[in-house]
## 1
Amino acid sequence: MNKKIAVIKGDGIGPEIIEESVKVLKKIEDKFGHSFELIYVDAGGAAIDKCGKALPQETIDVCLASDSVLLGAVGGPKYDSQPAENRPERALLGIRSLLGLYANLRPAKLFDQLRDASPLREEIVDAGIDFMVVRELTGGVYFGDHVTEEKDGEAVAYDVMKYSESEVKRIAKVAFDTARLRGKKVCSVDKANVLDSSKLWRKVVVEVAKDYPDVELSHMYVDNAAMQLCKNPAQFDVILTENMFGDILSDEASMITGTIGTIPSASFGDSTRGMYEPIHGSAPDIAGMDMANPIGTILSVAMMMKYSFHMENEAKVIEEAVGKVLDQGYRTKDMESANTTVIGCKEMGDRIAELIY
Ligand SMILES: NC(=O)C1=CN([C@@H]2O[C@H](COP(=O)(O)OP(=O)(O)OC[C@H]3O[C@@H](n4cnc5c(N)ncnc54)[C@H](O)[C@@H]3O)[C@@H](O)[C@H]2O)C=CC1
Ligand SMILES: CC(C)CC(=O)C(=O)O
Ligand SMILES: [Mg+2]
């Protein structure tokens, strides 16, 4: 199969983790006889450095003309003083919105090999951690008005969290469809005891659930959900939640599985074109040190194979290669535990790619 993939390296560890995932893409091409045309474009700080704009029009055009997008991560301290509308993070939000990627799937699954890396107690880990965060990605407070103004002699700032019925309905359907293929349970996370946007969210989710009588629906307030993720993560199958809550809860979910470095994500809308990226950021504290964990990005490639290209076998081969490297005891620093061998980002990528033959 021929596929066009727009590749955005981004900032910080972005270029390092993308380099390793491209090694994996090349091996998949060879093994399965596919042709992946990789078109490199810039977004975020790297784009600001080149042309002054965090999201150049060429990047948008190439992404729209591609079958999928692979992204490392954007942002970093160098760009924190940019005007709000030209920050790297806004470029990322812009791509998500312009491509209509309203659904973000973030799997939190504990690799058996990483049990010792989880900070949770053994009996909690033993109960199993395997759930999917279905995060709404193009609405909510990240996309509402952001205002700073002077009032009564001082600065006042506010950000608007807004959802329409149709926005909630379409992401709820994604969550119920996802649950049907898994454990048939959806926990909708909101703050309906306080927020109007959450009250609407809950009402619409209850409506959508009527079309899925085979899926069990529960509701949880987000503060409780943050606590339950540590207390009893085995209770969750699919967590459905709005943009910012999903952003925060998925970082927490990653840590209970050992590290944020291994969690991939898939973002999609109504077409098969998706964007695939690890859930972490640009990790400026370890950028350029060959310490980044490339597994989240490599598993994002596996999600691209599965969700955008319907290449189930290719996805499986990548996941198995990751599993084998972990079986052999190799870890990047963030996954280190007793009796493991710490290796760098490049070696991790090489070893995973070598196991695809
Ligand atoms: N999708 C994206 O492009 C995202 C971008 N950001 C941006 O990234 C920058 C840094 O943000 P932070 O809040 O520090 O979050 P971060 O996720 O970049 O880093 C948090 C911590 O996790 C570690 N970490 C992250 N990814 C890792 C990996 N693959 N391997 C090993 N360790 C890893 C980092 O070293 C750091 O200690 C900011 O400019 C932020 O806005 C943050 C989140 C997502
Ligand atoms: C720009 C941020 C919203 C990115 C982020 O933290 C994420 O999507 O996880
Ligand atoms: Mg985040």
## 2
Amino acid sequence: MAQLPLIELKSVSFQYDYTQVLTNISLKVEQGDFLALLGPNGSGKSTLLKLILGLMKSTSGQIELFGQPANTFKHREWIGYVSQKSNSFNSGFPATVKEVVASGLTKKIGLFKRHLASQNSKVIQALRDVGMDGFADRNIGELSGGQQQRVFIARALVAEPKLLILDEPTVGIDHENVQSFYDMLASLNEDHQMTMILVTHDVDTVSNRISHVACLNQTIHFHGFKNDYDSLSADQLNAWYGHVVRKIHHTKEEKTQ
Ligand SMILES: Nc1ncnc2c1ncn2[C@@H]1O[C@H](COP(=O)(O)OP(=O)(O)OP(=O)(O)O)[C@@H](O)[C@H]1O
């Protein structure tokens, strides 16, 4: 039997007061997809994520999560989310890396229950998955922006989500570390079969890691395999985006595949 899509949007529209932001969005995200959601500033990417996460209600259309209507969906812990501005702790913030990651378990075990010793091993495993287990007892505020971002991904992972949504996770990560950051996401996708939705402007850097691309600018202009996205012309993309976008740089190896 075919698996249900993890996310299905059917003719979804949304407006803030009088501003129409999303129009007639239909989109399916399947198990194992690594989807890059692309679009210029103000194109509605964060709004779309907020609708999927149930933080706001669509003006019209339907959203289904794991085959259930979003408004009655009970398993919010199946969806991990790392927001755009999560990595901004100042150095005095009084929490260790381990404590920050453990706070991701509250969705599962309830806010006021004590974290058991068995939970500790989950915390360490999540930190290992993002290459940060050596920092467990450090103060979160002492870490670099990129290290903090990994810790916030570990915080999402510790609840064992089936789907991870990341809104521009590389903001604040220096250029040299962006590639290894995406390598880490790719190994979560490949080794843990974790479905990923990534809002990004780094399409060049992430290009060899993703399976699918969706181009959003108020509506979905393209959704398909990354290879089909690669064969779109720059003119086509510019018509959708209304400004000049660079095409993905193809490596020699990719071209010969
Ligand atoms: N709370 C709000 N009230 C009214 N309008 C809003 C609100 N939040 C966003 N908007 C508007 O909705 C549109 C889409 O915003 P959104 O944040 O979803 O875009 P985005 O694609 O995520 O942009 P960016 O790449 O800059 O993060 C923009 O025109 C924005 O001004």
